[in-house]
């Protein structure tokens, strides 16, 4: 029998070592995976977790697949001129020996086109694929929405800053693409829908809107936007007057009359916002609308 050469032996050792080497998935540790519960009619939600890369090399999460929705994507949020925008990313970097947090307002796994509601405590299967092609399957638990982290005993989310004298949390910012004082406007928006037209236009590239879609959205805004602004302003003013008039001792009948006037305006606001939503569903594709609707709840 002819003896093996040193080169052949070395090649055999290398092949054997590679066969036994751990995949990236085996070197990844997933902690606290959960899926955010959303209203039954919501078209999308997100999954969050922490991902620890226990290997000595940098790797990346490059894809994900869940089984309660039609499309699963990797996403992040960015601040652009004071506006929070959602962006799809091709991969999520996982530095060697480090833990990467997927959390509300940042990196997350987006579940678009939900085929069933997310229930509290429900175990949701998600496949995570890494840069070497290996996959780790996890179970993320359905969890209620808790803004800015878990609620503490005072009812305020951990990490949330207290309200200042103006009633607005320090460092907190809401923007819906149109309103100059969005927090005040959103407080009176019933139902609580953001300005979908403004958000859609500002995120047109991410949504993949055509020139015709953008034109149709702007046409609706031109027809209804100024009237909505006026209604918001009038409702805000009337409710301030109600407080002052009540303290001043205005008769009950007059207070009730003013209150009914504000209710009528609120109803008109609600009807217009519902019309806005229905119009957007006609203009956008199902996937585009699902992405649009997901931008605001994920903030």
From TrEMBL:
Endpoints of the signal sequence: 1-21
Segments passing through the bilayer: none
InterPro entries, per the entry: LpqE-like (IPR007410), Lxx211020-like (IPR058248), PCuAC_sf (IPR036182)
Keyword Signal: yes
Keyword Electron transport belongs to the record: no
Top-rank lineage group of the source organism: Bacteria
SUPFAM superfamilies (alphabetical): DR1885-like metal-binding protein
Keyword terms: Signal
Identification of the protein by name: Copper chaperone PCu(A)C
